[in-house]
Amino acid sequence: MHLLVFGDLLQLPPVSDGPVFGPVPTETLNKCVQSVAPVHLWSLLDYDELRINMRQKDDGTYKTILANLRVGTVSDADTNILKTRVINLNFHNPGERLYKLCDYVKALSDAVCIMPTNDM
């Protein structure tokens, strides 16, 4: 049987949830592969790393920030650049803040919003 597995092993975890990739308990793994002996799944795979970032290929600064972010080595320069992208919506009412944010994003041609929680 041939199996292709794709994924970003350094992917940031979902907001308010655990990482997508993590250790699988031995009992669960043995149940899934129906084995009574321990299975070392990673030793059964041939690993090829994709090294060209196609999504951010035209924005070297953003590509560098994301590469640093994914391994936890964000520099002061990265932080300063990200701080210039903060949208200040000083409204106490969450509904009003949401409408203002939607209006702001609609006015942008290619917006990407990174939210700190699912509630925002």
TrEMBL record:
Name this protein carries in UniProt: ATP-dependent DNA helicase
Annotated organism of origin: Macrosiphum euphorbiae
